[in-house]
């Protein structure tokens, strides 16, 4: 079955071994899947999703992309870049305080020409997003709502096909570890695991959501996405592995775990993580290694979902060293 897709990501992304990190942790063999190198606007996992979301927007003859996220959203940065590349207008509803110095993703959003609507409180974001969408329609636009994090059944296709890509790279791993939040990457990997007979385990480290909520949402999203392949695969929450032990401080709160993970990856592998997503996911993986959750005979793939521009936001940069 042909699924509409606009190919612009730099794929396949490489897989690299992390011998220095594995040695310092005394743990399992470690690899990293470099989705920070997907190419669009400093790369990241949302680029894979946007290949399918842009195709859907084109099919609907949309002229404007509208989406939402935090003020340093990696998703919004890549959405704004995709809009610029493919000739869409773009409006982003961002929650948070505008920084005194425009930097990092917030700077890039504006370089790509996005219209910014600021919302102080995250709880108001969905309402303002819907109002923004309706205003665009009333103004004669044909807007396409890019879901938060790109996490719709359409966006899930990005990581369903990523699992096919992984299988072709023939790196024998029995654990995949990554950061999970809006659920689209997670659902794509879960669906891809089923479709491509991946025998290992897929473990999402929650960035901001309770594990029970994630398991329910991801299983539902994976089942919905399976229909795009002409079938309805049943998934239950028990099919989804999620660990919410590392997100209790709240979304975007930069703690010692994230700081240590960034330093360990930088010092021992020359590899940069971001302070919100990969930093937290890596902190969880490192803690699980130290606790003996993974056996030394295991091979663990850390799926790097990008986000490094956030390192240059003042709220994080001043606390890194």
Description:
Helices cover 41% and strands 16% of the residues. Strand 8, helix 8 and strand 9 form a beta-alpha-beta unit. The mean pLDDT is 97. The chain folds into two domains: 15-45 and 151-317, Rossmann fold, CATH 3.40.50; 46-149, Rossmann fold, CATH 3.40.50.1100. The protein starts with 14 loop residues before the first strand and ends with a helix. Helix 2 (46-59) packs across helix 6 and helix 3 runs parallel beside helix 4. It is globular. It has helices spanning 19-25, 46-59, 74-86, 104-111, 125-138, 153-169, 184-195, 211-226, 256-269, 278-290, 314-317; strands at residues 15-17, 29-34, 64-70, 89-95, 115-119, 143-145, 175-180, 201-206, 241-243, 299-304. The strands form two sheets. It has a six-stranded mixed sheet with strand order 1-2-10-7-8-9, with helices on both faces. A four-stranded parallel sheet has the order 5-4-3-6, sandwiched between helices. The longest helix has 17 residues, at 153-169. The chain has 321 residues and is of the alpha/beta class. The chain is built from eleven helices and ten strands.
């Amino acid at each position: 079955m042909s699924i509409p897709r606009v190919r612009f990501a730099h794929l396949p992304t490489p897989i690299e071994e992390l011998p220095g990190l594995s040695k310092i942790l005394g743990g399992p063999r470690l690899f990293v899947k470099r989705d920070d190198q997907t190419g669009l606007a400093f790369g990241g996992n949302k680029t894979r999703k946007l290949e399918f979301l842009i195709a859907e927007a084109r099919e609907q003859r949309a002229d404007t992309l509208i989406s939402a996220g935090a003020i340093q959203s990696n998703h919004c940065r890549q959405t704004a870049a995709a809009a610029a590349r493919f000739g869409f207008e773009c409006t982003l509803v961002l929650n948070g305080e505008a920084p005194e110095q425009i930097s990092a993703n917030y700077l890039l959003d504006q370089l790509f020409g996005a219209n910014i609507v600021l919302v102080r409180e995250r709880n108001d974001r969905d309402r303002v997003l819907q109002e923004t969408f309706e205003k665009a329609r009333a103004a004669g636009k044909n807007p396409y709502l890019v879901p938060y994090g790109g996490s719709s059944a359409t966006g899930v296709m990005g990581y369903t096909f990523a699992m096919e890509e992984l299988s072709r790279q023939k790196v024998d791993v029995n654990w995949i570890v990554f950061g999970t939040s809006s659920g689209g990457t997670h659902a794509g990997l879960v669906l891809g695991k089923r479709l491509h007979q991946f025998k290992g385990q897929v473990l999402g480290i929650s960035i901001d959501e309770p594990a029970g909520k994630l398991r329910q949402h991801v299983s539902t999203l994976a089942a919905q996405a399976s229909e795009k392949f002409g079938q309805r695969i049943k998934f239950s929450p028990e099919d989804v592995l999620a660990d919410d032990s590392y997100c209790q401080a709240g979304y975007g709160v930069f703690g010692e775990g994230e700081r240590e993970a960034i330093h360990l990856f930088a010092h021992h592998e020359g590899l940069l993580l971001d302070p919100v997503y990969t930093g937290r996911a890596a902190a969880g993986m490192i803690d699980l290694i130290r606790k003996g959750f993974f056996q030394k005979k295991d091979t663990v793939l850390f799926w790097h979902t990008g986000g490094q521009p956030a390192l240059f936001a003042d709220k994080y940069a001043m606390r890194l060293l």
